[in-house]
From TrEMBL:
InterPro entries: Cro/C1-type_HTH, HTH-type_regulator_Rgg, Lambda_DNA-bd_dom_sf, TPR-like_helical_dom_sf. This is Multiprotein-bridging factor 1 family protein. Coiled coil: none annotated. Residues 10-63 form the HTH cro/C1-type domain. PANTHER family: TRANSCRIPTIONAL ACTIVATOR, TRANSCRIPTIONAL REGULATOR-RELATED. Transmembrane segments: none annotated. PROSITE patterns: HTH_CROC1 (PS50943). It comes from the Bacteria.
Amino acid sequence: MTVVTLGETLKQARRAKQLTQKQLAAGICSQSMLSAIEKGQYTPNAKLLMALCERLAISLDEVSLTTNFAISRAANLNQKLADLCNRHQYQELFDFLQTDAVLDSIESDSQMQAYYYYLGISEWQLEHDSQTIETDFQLALANAHPNRSSTLTRLVTISMGVIKAQLGHQRVAEELIDQAVAGIEAAKYEENLIIIFYLAGLINFELKQYPATAGWVTKGIEFATHHNSHYMLANLYYLLARASEMQARIDMADEAHRRADIFTELFHEKPYENF
């Protein structure tokens, strides 16, 4: 099995843009460092990875499904949906989902589930009320197959977890992660499943659980490379770098507090609480 690394992902994107290593690295890092990254000999920090991805037009803020879910039997409506999603045109997507053409074409539970998933995602990106978004996801889950957890059901569940994490509901968010990943290793492989691990990491990042973030991201990287996929690798490594940076800051703060306690004990002086 060939393992697809972050470096290979960046190299493929660089070649697709017809850039040399020197051109990509210019103003960002040395060519030798870029070479080491592409060979998997060095993992870039968040700032460096973001700069490389920006030059390569790899988005680290938006996640696109590799395959979109059908909301209708009408191919033109599904194509329109996919086009809006892939271009991240969320206002247009939201408006499109309200049209009679879409609403009148929904015929099955799976189409209804997909409809409410996309409606919730568009409202989420447009920063609508969290309760409205949660209702959309609940309606999507209400139309899920009762006896099996599809990729879409997992995506809806983990998306609900992100909403809960953003609201500070840690226990519920962690329960939703467990539901979303249950049996995922034995599930029929689809590249969209990699998003589940990314969002599990994102949930923990929102909750400031940085070691757990790293754990889920690492699982996602292993899951992707096991299936010889480079999908989401840049996003996963970026989230891992962010979590590592935040954990380092916490470690530095803890060390500072430990040193302050030592000085307090030695010299009986209490450090200032405010600066």
